[in-house]
Amino acid sequence: MDLSKIRQLFCGSEPIQPNVVDEFVTRFEPFGLSSTALIPCYGLAEATLFVAGKRAGRQVRVDGGVVSCGVPAAGHEVRIVDPESGNPCPDGEVGEIQVRGPNVAAGYFHDSEATEAAFRAGPHRDALRTGDLGCLRDGELFVTGRISGLIVVAGRNLHPQDVEATANTCHPAVFRSVAFSVPGASGEDLVVVAERRVTTGLADARAAITAAVTAAHGVRPRDVEFVGIGRIPRTTSGKLRRAEARRRYLEAAG
After folding, report:
1. Fewer Cβ neighbours under 10 Å: the N or C end of the chain?
2. Of 51, 93, 98, 106, whose CA–CA distance to 73 is shortest?
3. Where in the chain is the domain with CATH 3.40.50.12780?
4. What is the rounded CA–CA span in Å between residue 86 and residue 241?
5. Torsion angle, CA of 216/221/225/228, rounded to 10 degrees?
């Protein structure tokens, strides 16, 4: 297999983990794939997909454990604002990602209320509120999570993607995971559901997830459940359906 002719491989849709980038490059470099071929990028349907991406020929940048999604496409503006006040955030500070550009849609079809909420942001009411969280560093976009997906447990704000990344890499029995919150005795509790590669030794895997998440995020999961591969609900484009996973968990718990 000769991959030396491949110049660009675009990757997006889900948060891109640094260890996945490293493993992919290590696996395919022996077949001629250039380490600069991977193009982490960011986009969304409301912007007819593409918003920002890594410049070709450069190494993937990782800062603070987050993979850079590169620079905005030509003619586009990406800004980071406080999601409550709408005030611009300084370089490196996490806030809501807003997008302006020629490929941003005019609004949602026959839904003026949703259009007003999402497409009329900014001082000129022409920016798209993406609902995504991130920051700009040296002109590059780093995506950290979703506003609506924040998990608030014991006064801590957790991005589910961060918890999932910890769970996914702490034990070889874990294939992928999903994290969400459920009602607890005094607020919200954290739950992790993981797809398992094996059917034995899961007690050790459960203990590893609990210890790793507690150490990395300062919150101990109330429960760690295992399901078979393919059982965590995902969209047709492969994104985790956290709300549906939460609904199934609560339904099973009675």
Report:
1. C
2. 51
3. 9-146
4. 28
5. -30
Q: Are strands 49-53 and 38-44 parallel, antiparallel or unpaired?
A: antiparallel
Q: Write out the two tokens for 71.
A: 């620079």
Start-end of CATH 3.30.300.30 domains in the chain:
151-253
Both tokens assigned to 99: 């997008």
Residue 133's H or E segment, with its range, is: strand 128-137
Contact 135, 93 (CB under 8 A): yes
Chain position carrying tokens 């193009």: 39
> Any idea which residue has 């990395």 for tokens?
216
Architecture of the domain spanning 9-146: 3-Layer(aba) Sandwich (3.40)
- CA–CA gap between residue 38 and residue 164 (Å, rounded): 22
3-state percent breakdown (helix, strand, coil) of the chain, nearest 5: 25, 35, 40
Burial of 77: CB neighbours in 10 Å, binned 0-12, 13-18, 19+? middle
> Averaged in consecutive runs of 10 residues, what is the pLDDT profile of the chain (254 residues)?
96 85 95 97 94 96 93 97 92 96 96 95 92 95 87 89 96 97 88 97 97 97 98 90 93 86
Superfamily of domain 151-253: ANL, C-terminal domain (3.30.300.30)
